[in-house]
Each structure stands twice: as structure tokens, then as C-alpha cells.
Input
Amino acid sequence: MAFTRPELEQYAAKHRDRFEQLLQEFVEIPSVSADPDHKADLERCAELGLATVRAFGGKADIHRVPDGPPVVLGSFESGKGLPTLTIYNHLDVVPASKETEPWRTDPFTFIKEGDTYRGRGTTDDKGPALSALIGARAAIDAGAPINIKVLWELEEEVGSPHFADTLRAIGPAARTDAVVVSDTVWVSRARPAQSTGLRGLQSMTLRLETGATDSHSGTTGGLARNPVAELAQLVGEMFDARTGRVKIPGFYDEVETLSKQELADFRAAGFSIPRFKRVYDFPLAAHQRSARRRQTPVGHADVRGPRARGWLRASGRQDDHAAARRAQGVGAHGPEDDGQSPPVRAEARPPHGP
Output
């Protein structure tokens, strides 16, 4: 049978109490992936996800790779030979504290105020995961000729460093014909939005060596170079903070620019193309060492400034559904080079792995 819109609304209303009860259980597990102290909470959240998928009649298993957090893969089968749709969500959250942030309620206590739910994860992304799960169950009950999988990870908020390896380890069980990322936004309650593409994230760590021996700039009259200032200059050569434009040669080589006709077609179809300020993540790690090490220039990017010399080795772009969210940076310039200091060598490399 196929649901009419009124029948679908009745189906949602029928499951609302169950949805709210489950949402409370999920929200009140502080599954903070950025904090190692919450590793046990990630496990608890995965176990709850496993039990929830099975309670809705699906098959489910937990998968992981060494040192990686759990990934829940559930499935609702309609029949062999039918196309498979995978709905992706994440169950981890970012840190939150009522004491240090403007929360009016405890972020890990579920609060219902009319049609509004409060608590970390209600929107990003535990609430949408449960909504998609109930929607999957509704599609199966309606006899939709499709197999549906739900894929829930627990490290999206830290860049999903183990996610690709976990998918490879899962193997054929993760095979699908299409993926819906249920971690996007709506323009408003009255106007649903469909995201047709997600921007990726390129992160890197900068390591800088500035001298052969330890020295304090306060005792050298400002002649000694400051690693923070050198890194600021290097980042300035790589990234325009005023426009959000990355200045590394070749960075945009694989980016396709929409033509005027394509933009017009999007608008004619009713799509809006909002303007967002680009945010890129450049986590900086400066290490001033007591002894010089030989560094080999790698990569192709020329990031030489007036004084500092550096080379870039960056990882391949990551397809990140979750969007780029944190930016760090400092601004200062050191003294002019007196011609006596050893050359600065900077190496940029991915934060995960060598």
C-alpha cells in the first residue's frame, strides 16, 4: 500500500511519543567525540543505536577498525534485486557546558517545550537520525520497492578520521545505489531545502623551526624570530582571511565553476544559492626546537614570504558532509631579517597520520 499525505501525517503522529522518548535517551548520552574521556559514552550510544534499529524491525551490526569508534549499520530489506538507499547520520556531538556557554538548560538533559526540543544533538544529528529511521520504517510498511540502510557514525564532529577505513572493512555489506546525507539544513519550517552538494574540508598542521638554539626575544632586542609571527605570515601567504580565498596554487584545480546558464537554471527551478562566508580549518602546531633538523621541501605550493621560506605537503581533499566549522589564526609580523638567522623551514602535513 502507499501512504497518502494524511495517512503519512497520522503515521508520524502515532510514532511521536516513541520518537521523543528515544530522543531523550540519545540526547542524555554525552557522546562527545572530541573528548577521550567520553569514549565509553560513544560505545553506549552505539549500543543504543543498535538496539533501536532492531526494535524497529531492522537488522543491525556494529563495525569498527583498530582505535576507531563504533559505526552502526542497519538495514530494512524489501527484496532482492531492488535498489538500495543508504541514509547517513552521525550520533556524536560537540562539547557543551552550561557553566561556560550560554545554555539556559543542561545541554545533556532533554527538554521538551511544546514543539521545541532542547538538548545537544536534538538537531545535529540525533533527532534527524531518528526521524530518518522512522521514515525508513514507514517506507517499508508502505511497500516501497526499495531496500533501505541506515549508517550512523560517531566521529563526524572530529573529521571522521576512521570512517573511510571502517567502510572498507565493512565491505560488501555497505554496498548501496544512493546515499542521502541526513545532516543538512532547512531554510525554514515552511520551506524544506534539498542540498545537492556538500563542500569538503582540507586541514593541515604546520610545524616550524626557527633557530639552532633556544633564545628569548625579550633578551635579544626583538632580533630573534617569533614562531607565532612566522606561522601567521606563512598562513597569510596561503589564505586570504578577508575573502576566504585559498591562495595555494592548484587548490581549486578540481573545482567546477557553474556557468551563468546553470545558475539561471537553478534559480528558475526555485533553488536559492545563499552566500556563505567560507571557513577553512588550519589547526596550527608550532614547535620551536633546540637543534636544527634537515627538512626536505615537498609538494608544489610556493608559500614563500618576504623572509620565511616554507613548503607544503597537504593531504587529499576529504569529502566531509558535515561542513567546515572551526578556524584558527593569529596576526603579527616579526622583525626584518638581519641576514644572520638560519632560514625558516615550515612543513605542513595532515593532522592524522604521517
User: Anything to note?
Assistant: The longest helix spans residues 39-55.
